[in-house]
Design a protein that fits this description.
alpha+beta; about 20% helix; about 120 residues; Cytochrome C3; two-stranded antiparallel ribbon
C-alpha cells in the first residue's frame, strides 16, 4: 500500500515495524545524562537565531518505522545532506510529510518546543 503525499511516495504498508529495539550495551551515567542514544541534533541555523536546536529522536521513529519509510525518498542518508527548514516543513517536505496533523502532530507555533527542545550536552 502506498500513499501519495506532497509529490512523494512512502511505502506505508511495509514501513510499520512492531518491535522496540533492544540496546546491546549501556551508556555511562554521565553520557546518559546529556544524550539519548539515537537522537540527532539538527542545528544549521537555529541557535544562531536564538532558537533551541532540533533534537530528532531517530530511535523513537525507528522503533515504529523501517528505514525505507524515510530513506532515501524523504531524507538522504548522509549527515548534512538535507536542508530542513521550517518553510520546507510547511510545504510538506522532510518531517512535514508525516507531521501534517493527519499522520502525526502538525508543525505549528503551538508545537515548536516539541522539536526545538535541545539542551546542549
Amino acid at each position: 500500500m502506498a500513499r501519495p503525499d506532497s509529490g512523494r511516495w512512502v511505502r506505508w504498508g511495509l514501513a510499520m515495524w512492531p518491535i522496540v529495539p533492544v540496546l546491546p550495551f549501556a551508556l555511562t551515567a554521565a553520557a546518559a545524562a546529556n544524550l539519548v542514544l539515537g537522537d540527532v541534533l539538527m542545528d544549521r541555523s537555529s541557535t544562531a537565531n536564538g532558537i533551541p536546536a532540533v533534537v530528532f529522536p531517530h530511535w523513537k521513529h525507528r522503533s515504529v518505522f523501517r528505514c525505507y519509510a524515510c530513506h532515501p525518498d524523504i531524507f538522504e542518508m548522509r549527515a548534512g545532506a538535507n536542508d530542513v527548514t521550517m518553510d520546507a516543513l510547511g510545504r510538506g517536505e522532510f518531517c512535514g510529510q508525516c507531521h501534517n496533523g493527519r499522520v502525526a502532530f502538525a508543525v505549528s507555533f503551538d508545537t515548536c518546543r516539541t522539536c526545538h527542545s535541545s539542551v546542549e550536552p
